[in-house]
Description:
single chain; 6-stranded antiparallel beta sheet; NRDE family protein
Amino acid sequence: MCLIVFDWRPRASAGALFTLAANRDEFLRRTADPLHWWSAADDVTSPGSSATGVLAGRDLVGGGTWLGMTRSGRFAALTNYRAPKDMRPDAPTRGTLVSRWLTGAQGLPDTPLGYLDEIARSGDLYNGFNLIVGDWARRELAWYCNRADRAPALLPEGTHGISNAVLDTPWPKLVRKRAELAQLAGGDAQVPLARLVEMMRDPQVAPDRDLPATGIPLERERALSAAFIETPDYGTRGTTALRVTLRGALLDVEALERSDDDGSHRVVRPGAYERHETYTIERG
């Protein structure tokens, strides 16, 4: 993922607990499976874990995934931290940081903050990343960036955003989409997920004066400043909208993904293939 905005209300007694809109940006040549319920064959990265009950896409190159959730209420999402001079080709794939939480890999803590504390012990082995992990049933959501001078921490209530820098870094597209999500989520807890998807499919680029300097050429920086990226070799491959709603002792989960791949790995631009999933979590 390269742009995630989310509204988090852990103290809510009714209505939306968590609302998210996210774009996955990736090279067009990199194959992946779209959002689906995993089988045992989908998780080849965590021996002894269980992939059943996981709803996520799957990276067919490095393994793992970029965003996913489970029937028990676990959630995780990842963005890369843009630091081209620090990239190491021999670093382990970052997508397994998401899948290991979702599948409950053996020997790892079962709370969001505990899991991130464990990941932080070896965080310097990886290329730069932001990782959000949560447990909706526990009402806990935590964040860690291995390029930030901060320890993993639980996230406070509010509307947040992550792109390819640390949490809430004011890049133009993040500021714009975070504000739009705050307005939509605040005005209507049941805003259609399709509207959140459309919100994220915005090709507007930022003025040059507002662009960050991340070590890439200006033309590339300009192209990547759009929420919805389109270049000949790289772009927004899919958009996910997600809402978790409180209903008494239950949590209703609704997810919508629109992507450029119908599962056959033939990329069609702009992507219009949709997958819609709903399920319910019983809180203990």
